[in-house]
Amino acid sequence: MSFDDTQQMCDYNPHTSTGLGLSLKDLTFLYAMSKQVVIREMEVGLTYYRTKYLEMIEFIARVSEFKFQNTSMQSSVPLSKKIEYVMD
Asked: Could you read off the pLDDT of 6-34 as tens digits, one per residue?
């Protein structure tokens, strides 16, 4: 999974307000924060641009938390329910 795939997964479209309603800036930040540190970056090459399974799970959790930030559901709804909402 690449960053482009992540945008597609979140239905990001700069011309409409469809999908999760995240800006490209927010989407990029959440994606970057979910990436793990790469050791020997020059040796691994293009694999750096692929998202590992664990990174994808963390990205989904970060999007779920971000989506409900500053809402009444921020502290009252568990993370599992937020993830369910985002994944639907």
From this structure: 766 666 565 554 467 777 888 889 888 88
| Predicted local distance difference test score (pLDDT) of residue 17 | 47
Can you tell me which residue has the tokens 């994808």? Answer: 56
pTM of the predicted model, to two decimals? Answer: 0.72
* DSSP E strand boundaries for the chain: none
In angstroms, the CA 77 to CA 46 distance is 38
Quick one: how far is CA 8 from the chain centroid?
A: 11
Q: Give the closest residue to 6 by CA, choosing from 34, 31, 32.
A: 31
Six-digit token string for 16 = 């409409």
67, 20 Cβ separation under 8 angstroms: yes
Sign of CA dihedral 72, 15, 34, 59: positive
Could you tell me if 46 and 24 are in contact, meaning their C-beta atoms sit under 8 angstroms apart?
A: no
Q: Supply 64's token pair.
A: 């779920």
